[in-house]
Design brief:
Elements (H helix, E strand, L loop, with lengths): L10 E6 L26 H9 L5 E6 L7 H6 L2 E5 L5 H12 L5 E4 L1 H5 L9 E4 L4 H12 L8 E4 L25 E3 L2 E2 L10 H5 L4 E2 L2 H13 L4 E5 L8 H18 L3 E6 L8 H9 L2 E9 L3 H6 L10 H10 L3 E8 L8 H12 L4 E5 L7 H9 L18 H15 L2 H14 L9 H4 L2 H20 L4 H13 L3 H22 L21
Parallel strand pairs: 1-2, 1-3, 3-4, 4-5, 5-6, 7-10, 10-11, 11-12, 12-13, 13-14
Antiparallel strand pairs: 8-9
Helix pairs in contact: 7-8, 8-9, 12-14, 14-19, 15-19, 17-19, 18-19
Length: 527
Amino acid sequence: MRAEGRQTVRRILCVFPRYTSSFGTFEYSYPLTDGVQAFMPPQGLLLIAAYMPENWEVRFIDENIRAATPNDFLWAEAVLVSGMHIQRTQMNDICYRAHSYDLPVAIGGPSVSSCPDYYPAFDYLHIGELGDATDQLIDILEKDTSRPDRQVVLKTTDRLDMTRFPIPAYELADIPRYFLGSIQYSSGCPYQCEFCDIPGLYGRNPRLKSPEQITAELDKLLECGIMGSVYFVDDNFIGNRKAALDLLPHLVEWQKRTGFVLRLSCEATLNIAKRPEILALMRDAWFGTIFCGIETPDPVALKAMKKDHNMMVPIMEAIETLNSFGMEVVSGIILGLDTDRPETGQHLLEFVEASQIPLLTINLLQALPQTPLWDRLKKEGRLNEDEGRDSNVDFLLPYDDVVKSWRRAMGSAYVPEKLLERFEYQIRHTYPNRIKPPIGAMLTWKSIRLGLVMLRNIFWKVGVLGDYKRAFWKFAFRRLARGEIEYLISGIMVAHHLINFARDASGGQTNASYYSLKLQDAAVPAE
């Protein structure tokens, strides 16, 4: 429930920091769209914006779209910031800019909740999720918006039940400027993978919104102009399998009511392959993509990282099962594990070839605070604090060899011909297993116009000006001949970013770990 109105009216500026370029920013795809400038609207900060007292004035700025201006800071009485470790430098920069206008700045979210010491300049640290600490912050700002003499730390001890969460303030964001929509159903994950900080931050017993909340949020996203796809940002969509089974029929009915205007995607553990009743409902609800943290095809490594649940079904069999329900798999992969050998990089490329997964977020191992991995490596004296490195882990293999292996893997996995062949496989073997929504409901004038704009941009910027034209036209002519225009657009939108980002990666122009502070000047510029 939204915080009640207060006698004093305040002006609150919510600023979301830029991301450093990575797989997940997709900025190379934006010129092929009709004005997209950022990846997904941030759930956390928009939730806080919606929770502010009803009579307070709230503005939201995503610096992936535009930077906060002097006029924005002059308007505000207080500034709120949130983000992840990868945005640490940018969040501190927002704080310094706000302080130049003598504004109090509060920071919340996963990064500060895990590492408060990363943010010594902020006036208020909001540790934990939405709850009593949020109410305390509102009480403080209502009484006084001058900067405190020393940093104030507010810790949530009584979290607000997620069934009482307001709808995130999507209306404050420029939703059509985002590549994907975002929505959150649950918080927390029952598993304890060694490298993951989710159980430490949000608990092992997933907390849930109601199905009615989710359909209302989807309605709001549509109202605010989202088109294409919406991503469930839950840490694990099947963290509570019974809840997922309760939610999915509501999503099926929502899709039927709205005409299947949005394709859905999510993150889940690979053992979802053991639950055909969930997969069948996901197919009916038009889930098209599922991100699975496969991490490594090596069973010895999976056991060592306490990810045994990835072995409940043989990995290749699990991928084939998901494909049989029409879901394209996106995979997380980690290099630099203690179990890696000199030939691990080559084995990874063989796995890419065998699995036919188009998009794999290949990343160097990074130890995050509040994880078992951090605790173990600290005890072993293997945490490296040199911020000029790609990873804070002292690998068992030579560091330079591991980074070179990552660069070779990136350079090989995303060669245009190989990547587009993997999309070709998905088009032939996975996409035909999807339901076929009613065409009339989807072919609105707005969607037709958008498709024509993207086709024009793709043909010109990739097919004429691009430097992998031969591979592109081979892929494009097949789609055109078969009337697969949607697959042409969606495939190239993703492939174009991966090809260009992988070139940067293999050439040493981007980080091998997306949590590293190295190369922060490669952050996506706000326009």
